[in-house]
Design goal:
7-stranded mixed beta sheet; 494 residues; Rossmann fold; 24 strands
Amino acid sequence: MQVEADLRRIHTWLRKVEVCALPGPRTPLLEGTIQGLLGTFDALGHRVVDRPGESTDILLATAPFGEPLDWREAPMLTARKRFGLERTPWVFTLVPVSPQALQHTLEQLSLALARERPDPAQYAFPGLAQQAYQVLHEQGRRGGSMLALARLVQAQAKSIRVLLVVGERQVREIYHFDLVGGHPASRGPDLQALFANAALRVVTTVSTRELTAHMWVADTLPQETWRRLETPKAMPRAARALRRRRFFTRMVRVKDLVRVPVVGDAIANQYSEGCFATWDVELGALITTVTGSARPVEKGSITERDLTLVVGTRPDGQGALVRPIEGHPRDPPSSEAVEMMMLVQASTPVLIPGGRQAPAIRSILHGHRGVASYDPDVVEFVPLDAPYYHFPVTCATEAQAQGLLAAFSRSEALKDPQDPRCAVFTVLPTHGAAIIEKWVPGKAPFEHLCQLMDNGQLEIEEPVPQGPLRYIPAGEGRMQLVEDETPEGESIGY
């Protein structure tokens, strides 16, 4: 098998991986898909093995559609013990579904999502927790019936990373489900192109690393100093303002979706969607929200105890340096703490009111939201490098941090203190928006961004683009979002 190369659309940092397909029930559709993927991995220079070992990066598992898998059979929860491994490889669970069954389920979910308040009877799917209907409704109202389906399939398959294989005896398309709610599809003019696209999406996921190995520094900030600062008081006010504008969605708890005895190291018990941070001039540090994976945190209603202090990044870049705050729990910062600090440290120093020097970036806001339109006179859009639109990355990873750093380094508004545009944003496909606020005289942190939202100059929308996107003129000086499909007939590889 040969796969054509298009280096403009492939990340340069992809690495060679080891893949193992686990035994399990297989339909003709699954058998053909697994063999096609394994053949593609091999053709791309990756190693395919029959049994997982310590060098195995990827496990391909299977699960039925519409039926709950017993947790004892779920490799994401049991592979480490089952195969005597020191760590759990990345598990991708293939779930087969016919086009008719997929359409029927999506229509069923669409009817349920049309109601303002959820009807539990319309979400009575097998294997879910009693309150799962609330999660499916909330997620579906945010991202549509496909996102609700993703959460349903993930819960039933007991797997976060799912490849939903659509077809009868032969695959037509493959949807990729992940933790943050991504659901892009691999398609192509032929099976070779489809399998190449799907395999490269999987390799993209496992080729980067998380930057969440945060470290605490020895110097504790006295509570007296913390109480004297204005920035910590501004953060809860900003949280409430963003909640009123429905920027953050509710926290997702695993136990609210599905009952499993223990989650273990496979995934946190819960996660909150989004984070935000602002620079404190007096401390010379970034005040951020804590991560929702450590304990339940609703980002729209935080208190000062839900904040932490990031003073730098580890020399090896694998996490942030966090300064303890006297009297506060030692909860780690949001998973994007490293990338937020990298952005601030790389920004141009500017003079702010009072004659003090500070980074050009004052505040950073991230949420699982899209941007429908913006006013280019007051807001700047910066595109990502091309591969990020075709092979997206996810939160807390080195790849995402580098992608955002490259995008915002091209910002004219951040380079020029006189540029009137005090808001700069980009959108990560399958993930959400990253929005930066410059220093605006007389404004509290995030106040300018909220005013832009209120004025319609930065229009936030719930669906997140799943692939290539751009903004085009739409009259009255506005720029409107357009999502571009991958052109048919293109073969992708490396």
